[in-house]
């Protein structure tokens, strides 16, 4: 770790600036997913978790910025929170009527979790809250990054990555890599381990797009021309 840190020291300013810029840019990746939803005409095959999770993380990230009195984290998370709220509203508009109750349920769970954690911050000892709140954020990030893998069985069966948020996964891979480098530079072992995990997991999800197409292959029954040729 020391050797890597020493090698990266001359690029400290560049890496830090790139990590900050990429994090802000990542917030806009949801717009590409929204565009895919618009093209599909429905959000039925798209996961809602990245949007509601991003909203929850925006609330908690903003709270963490307040705890740290970080003048950079506060405005960045305000932007992220505002964008994710818009994404949630957009997703809801394109959700079929029979699934809207599920969206309300997930939104309620996210809101309740956010409120509970923010309330915990007000109660916790000031000397402990920074570390413990950081662990809570880490656990949330692990869940958000790994959640798409819950559909891995479906992806393999359908031989398609349809519904996976490519833009969000790609941006997450880039952002986690930059923060991994930043962790090496500042000799922060926790940051290195966190972002190494996120980077490997995101890169694995990204590799699925190289293995499977974005649309499931058509069966012979659904494609008369193919069936005719095979006869």
UniProtKB/TrEMBL annotation:
InterPro entries: SWEET (IPR047664), SWEET_rpt (IPR004316). The keyword Cell membrane applies. GO terms for cellular component: Golgi membrane; plasma membrane. Keywords: Cell membrane, Golgi apparatus, Membrane, Repeat, Sugar transport, Transmembrane, Transmembrane helix, Transport. The chain crosses the membrane at residues 14-34, 46-67, 73-94, 103-121, 133-152, 164-186, 192-212. One of its GO terms (molecular function) is sugar transmembrane transporter activity. It is found in: Cell membrane; Golgi apparatus membrane. Mediates sugar transport across membranes. Belongs to the SWEET sugar transporter family. This is Sugar transporter SWEET. It comes from Phlebotomus papatasi (Sandfly).
């Amino acid at each position: 770790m020391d050797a890597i840190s020493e090698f990266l020291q001359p690029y400290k300013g560049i890496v830090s600036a790139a990590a900050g810029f990429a994090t802000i840019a990542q917030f806009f990746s949801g717009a590409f997913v929204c565009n895919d939803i618009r093209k599909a005409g429905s959000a039925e095959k798209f996961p809602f978790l990245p949007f509601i999770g991003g909203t929850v993380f925006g609330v908690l990230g903003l709270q963490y910025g307040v705890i740290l009195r970080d003048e950079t984290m506060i405005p960045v998370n305000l932007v992220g929170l505002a964008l994710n709220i818009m994404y949630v509203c957009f997703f809801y508009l394109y959700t079929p009527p029979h699934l809207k109750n599920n969206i309300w349920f997930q939104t309620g769970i996210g809101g309740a979790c956010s409120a509970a954690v923010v309330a915990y911050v007000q109660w916790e000892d000031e000397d402990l809250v920074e570390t413990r709140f950081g662990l809570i954020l880490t656990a949330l990030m692990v869940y958000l990054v790994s959640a798409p893998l819950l559909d891995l069985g479906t992806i393999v069966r359908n031989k398609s990555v349809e519904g996976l948020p490519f833009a969000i996964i790609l941006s997450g891979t880039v952002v986690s890599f930059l923060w991994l480098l930043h962790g090496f530079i500042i000799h922060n072992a926790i940051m290195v381990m966190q972002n190494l995990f996120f980077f490997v997991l995101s890169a694995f999800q990204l590799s699925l797009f190289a293995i499977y197409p974005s649309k499931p292959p058509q069966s012979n029954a659904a494609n008369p021309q193919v069936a005719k040729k095979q006869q």
